[in-house]
UniProtKB/TrEMBL annotation:
<feature type="domain" description="ABC transporter">
    <location>
        <begin position="4"/>
        <end position="232"/>
    </location>
</feature>
<dbReference type="InterPro" id="IPR003439">
    <property type="entry name" value="ABC_transporter-like_ATP-bd"/>
</dbReference>
<dbReference type="Pfam" id="PF00005">
    <property type="entry name" value="ABC_tran"/>
</dbReference>
<dbReference type="InterPro" id="IPR050763">
    <property type="entry name" value="ABC_transporter_ATP-binding"/>
</dbReference>
<dbReference type="InterPro" id="IPR017871">
    <property type="entry name" value="ABC_transporter-like_CS"/>
</dbReference>
<keyword id="KW-0813">Transport</keyword>
<keyword id="KW-0547">Nucleotide-binding</keyword>
<comment type="similarity">
    <text>Belongs to the ABC transporter superfamily.</text>
</comment>
<dbReference type="InterPro" id="IPR025302">
    <property type="entry name" value="DrrA1/2-like_C"/>
</dbReference>
<dbReference type="Pfam" id="PF13732">
    <property type="entry name" value="DrrA1-3_C"/>
</dbReference>
<protein>
    <submittedName>
        <fullName>ATP-binding cassette domain-containing protein</fullName>
    </submittedName>
</protein>
<dbReference type="InterPro" id="IPR003593">
    <property type="entry name" value="AAA+_ATPase"/>
</dbReference>
<dbReference type="InterPro" id="IPR027417">
    <property type="entry name" value="P-loop_NTPase"/>
</dbReference>
<keyword id="KW-0067">ATP-binding</keyword>
<dbReference type="GO" id="GO:0016887">
    <property type="term" value="F:ATP hydrolysis activity"/>
</dbReference>
<keyword id="KW-0536">Nodulation</keyword>
<dbReference type="GO" id="GO:0005524">
    <property type="term" value="F:ATP binding"/>
</dbReference>
Length: 313
């Protein structure tokens, strides 16, 4: 089931098209990565999904019905990139206030706060002012404040900024746990290695438009280039490497990166060595990283834009 369906969404700042006809859907429980270079329109899009902005055009369907920001906001948790805790308020008092704003009773809020503060072992922070916490500690409080009301849709904008590796790991595990329990997560970041580790689906936007949308595994398959790593037990001489089935791209000792030619198959690579009695110690397909796909796609749209731009005389 899709928790969110977005259809032909548009948002303009005067004449500038910040979000320009974007459509996509997100399955319940998915961890969906929203990617794009600076100024692509991600924040504008997230603000429409959280009811902060109304779209100029298009439709958002949330949990099977037309999105109603006033009613649905209690089912959404949004951790924006600019953090929004009140600096002079005590941590406990503040989390209680934020949970009640999201519709929890005082009793429910207190019990949820206890659960999360125990889990993160931060009970001693309860009576501290936000001001007295480090940036990373504030980040943890902000994360807790975003999930206290058990949102159906959790939107996290750069949730790991300022966190050390241990705290990043803790938050990452919580993201996985929440997804397993059925929470749908939109995760916006510029850190591509985190996208590979965390997301099951990604959407890439540039200049307000969607340029790629699919499962992480599917996108890696779509952009693969027939590259393989072959490890050999003995060093072949140049004549033993010569074949029309593949080209050698890189050599490291007895390990080779090869590019398969279009009419050949992976078995042709293996047979090439086996027939010559050269032992194959390992064989692995090299898939592109999401970072490589991101750079390739963004560059491609920039080049296409340059070609269609009017020539100034
Ligand atoms: N309040 C505003 N008024 C006018 N233009 C705006 C406003 N907010 C954003 N923009 C413009 O809209 C475009 C999209 O901005 P947005 O903040 O949504 O991008 P982003 O993808 O979140 O970028 P970043 O990764 O840098 O945070 C940019 O060109 C930006 O300059």
């Amino acid at each position: 089931m899709n928790l969110l369906e977005v259809s032909h969404l548009k948002k303009y700042y005067e004449t500038h098209k910040a979000v320009d006809d974007i459509s996509f859907s997100i399955q319940q429980g998915s961890i969906f990565g929203l990617l794009g270079p600076n100024g692509a329109g991600k924040t504008t899009l997230l603000r429409m999904l959280t009811g902060i902005f109304y779209p100029d055009e298009g439709k958002i369907t949330f949990n099977g019905h037309p999105f109603d920001p006033e009613k649905d906001i209690q089912y959404i948790g949004y951790m924006p990139e600019e953090r929004g805790l009140y600096k002079k308020m005590m941590v406990g008092e503040q989390t209680l206030y934020l949970a009640q704003l999201k519709g929890l009773s005082k009793k429910e809020a207190t019990s949820s706060i206890k659960y999360w503060f125990d889990k993160f072992d931060i009970n001693s922070w309860y009576t501290k002012k936000v001001d007295e916490l480090s940036k990373g500690m504030q980040q943890k409080v902000q994360f807790i404040s975003t999930v206290l009301h058990k949102p159906k849709l959790l939107i996290l904008d750069e949730p790991f900024t300022g966190l050390d590796p241990i705290n990043s790991e803790m938050i990452k595990q919580e993201i996985f746990n929440l997804s397993k329990e059925g929470t749908t997560i939109i995760f916006s970041t510029h850190r591509m290695e985190q996208v590979e580790e965390i997301c099951d689906h990604i959407m890439l936007v540039n200049k307000g438009q969607k340029i790629l949308d699919g499962s992480v595994a599917g996108i890696k398959q779509e952009f693969k280039q027939g590259l393989f790593k072959v490890g050999l037990g003995t060093m072949p001489n140049p004549a033993q490497m010569a074949t029309w089935h593949f080209n050698i791209i890189e050599t490291h000792d007895k390990a080779f990166t090869v590019k398969l030619n279009e009419d050949s198959t992976t078995n042709d690579i293996l047979l090439h060595f086996i027939r010559q009695d050269i032992p194959v110690t390992y064989f692995e397909e090299i898939l592109p990283t999401i970072n490589e796909v991101f750079i390739k796609q963004v560059k491609q749209t920039e080049e296409a834009d340059l070609k269609t731009a009017p020539v100034l005389s």
